[in-house]
Design brief:
7-stranded parallel sheet; about 15% strand; NAD(P)-bd_dom_sf; 9 helices; single chain; SDR family oxidoreductase; Rossmann fold; alpha/beta; 7 strands
Length: about 270
């Protein structure tokens, strides 16, 4: 089955930098109409500056934690492209938290930014996808949603307990929404990553020079992947090649989740 997404319309959140930006660029290059959504308006203007006027791209700046902003994002998408076929929730917010004295406000913010926002936007977009399929009487494929998570969901980091909990909650939300939307022919999947060059990892590598060697040593494939490699996984999940795949969390981590951290240091 073809992986073509030519002419389909995608919304990508967190598209101002890092993983979200890589995914949005990749989908544009594969012929999709893409809405780059992020709260950083200046970053959005920079990342789309090199596109020709003929490129089917749209930028949307706003705080995705606000329901009205989500509604405006969907409206802007429909005004420009008349439909939405793909949603990639790539927005992430990372903040440390004391595992023994977690500030409730920090935990609530982690859950809101990394799970609740994506869930609400998915619900809103899914309703539109359902209406589109009904109008066109398309009973085979109504749309695809992908949530971006990290290995913290199954390998908790004590210093970022709130973020780890939020990632785990997001992955469970992915599975639950996949079941709920399957009768409507909307597929919902997740991508969990580690050892991939995200915006946050770039900052961490600058702050901790030895971190690169530690990550590589703990990754069986022995390197840090480019963000484009994760984008290719997202492309597969939103294409017809994955038409019978839903409720799955695909891990892109070079085998890191398989490695015993102690063994990795000894061998």
């Amino acid at each position: 089955m073809s992986m073509s997404i030519q002419g389909r319309t995608a919304i990508v959140t967190g598209a101002g930098r890092g993983i979200g930006l890589a995914v949005a660029h990749h989908l544009v290059e594969r012929g999709a109409n893409v809405v780059f959504a992020d709260r950083d308006e200046a970053a959005l203007e920079t990342v789309v500056a090199d596109y020709d006027d003929d490129a089917h791209v749209l930028t949307f700046a706003g705080n995705m934690s606000e329901k009205l902003v989500m509604a405006n994002l969907l409206s802007a998408t429909l005004d420009s492209f008349e439909r939405v076929d793909i949603l990639v929730n790539a927005h992430r917010f990372v903040q440390g938290s004391d595992p023994l004295d977690t500030d409730p406000a920090v935990l609530e913010e982690m859950l809101r930014q990394n799970m609740i926002c994506g869930l609400r936007l998915s619900q809103m977009v899914a309703k539109r996808m359902i209406r589109q399929a009904e109008d066109q009487r398309d009973l085979t494929q109504a749309g695809a949603i992908v949530n971006i998570s990290t290995l913290a969901a199954i390998r908790p980091v004590p210093a970022m307990l709130g973020y780890s909990i939020a990632c785990a909650a997001q992955e469970q939300a992915t599975r639950g929404l996949a079941l709920a939307l399957a009768p409507h022919k909307i597929r919902v999947n997740g991508v969990s990553f580690s050892s991939v060059m995200s915006h946050e990892l770039k900052l961490a590598l600058k702050a901790t020079p030895d971190l690169r060697d530690q990550i590589i040593a703990g990754t069986p494939l022995g390197r840090i992947a480019a963000a484009d490699e994760l984008a290719e996984t997202v492309h597969y999940l939103v294409s017809d090649a994955a038409r019978f795949v839903t409720g799955q969390i695909l891990t892109v981590d070079g085998g890191r989740c398989l490695a015993d951290p102690v063994t990795a240091q000894v061998l």
